[in-house]
Amino acid sequence: MFSLRLQLLPLLLLLPLLLGGCPRRAVESNPPPAPTPTSVASVLDHNVLLNGDAEAIMVGDKPPQKPIPAQWRETPDVFSTDYGDSPDEWPDAKPGCPDGRKRYFRLGLAINEPGKSISQTVSIGALQNDIDAGQVECALGGWFGGWTDGDASSRLEVDFLDTHGKVLATLATEPPVPGQLPKPATGRAGLIKVLATGKVPAGTRSLEARLAAIRLDKAIDTNAVATADNLSVVLRKKTQ
User: Fold this and answer.
1) Residues 6+ apart with CB under 8 A from 116
2) Is beta strand 136-147 parallel, antiparallel or unpaired with respect to 78-82?
């Protein structure tokens, strides 16, 4: 009898876990890694970013449990926000850019916080022959901005990485100056389209894409918000 009790003891200790003792979350907060493109056709002339418009969302397991952008690495105070949900930004559901939809990226900076970013990694090994021959360029685009009376802005950055993760080069869009953003009829936020193009260096096998919020005048003693929408990273054959 004593031997039987010893055998049952481990099962009794595991029973609470098997019956659901682990905490649950509304949606998985860490998205699965991006699928690896398997052909040149699946990489060239397509937006290789996942969820570049912030429309796909998750709800994390940490307060305040607001919607966060799916497929991007989670960062505190970066949310996928509905147009109209922040009355002092866009007071109604009308998109802040012509090709916008329901949501936008909202990156909040606290006092004494100079910047922050979210990122995702994209494999482009399928293009290695063309890349090493110097025949591929990268085009970045999107709508960027923030509070028109604030000191924060946003930009899209791409690191070109080799097989060991070493950064070979970086390409980035210029962050708009908040005071030069188009003034909205209502609200205090604005977006403007920005593009950037550069050569993909030989040896590149993956991209590290970042949406970054930064302070332009280093006045970090205030709260600030940077915004963005419809981000894209497109690889294409050079025309000459």
Assistant:
1) 75, 76, 77, 78, 107, 109, 212, 213
2) unpaired
Q: Reduce the DSSP state of residue 17 to 3 states and report it.
A: helix
What is the helix (H) or strand (E) element at residue 229, kind and residue range?
strand 224-237
Q: What are the φ/ψ torsions at residue 41 (nearest 5 degrees)?
A: -65, -30
CA-based nearest residue to 111, from 190, 19, 219: 219
Q: What is the pLDDT of residues 173-230, one digit of tens each?
A: 999 999 999 988 888 999 999 999 999 999 999 999 999 999 998 778 889 999 999 9
Angle at CA of residue 51, ends 183 and 155, nearest 5°: 45
CA 48 and chain centroid, separation:
13
The closest of 195, 237, 239 to 46, measured between CA atoms, is 237
Distance of CA 14 to the CA centre of its chain: 39
CA dihedral (164, 167, 171, 174) positive or negative: positive
pTM of the model: 0.83
Query: Is-cis flag, bond preceding 31, omega within 30?
Result: no
Domains of the chain and CATH, by start: 27-237 (2.60.120.260)
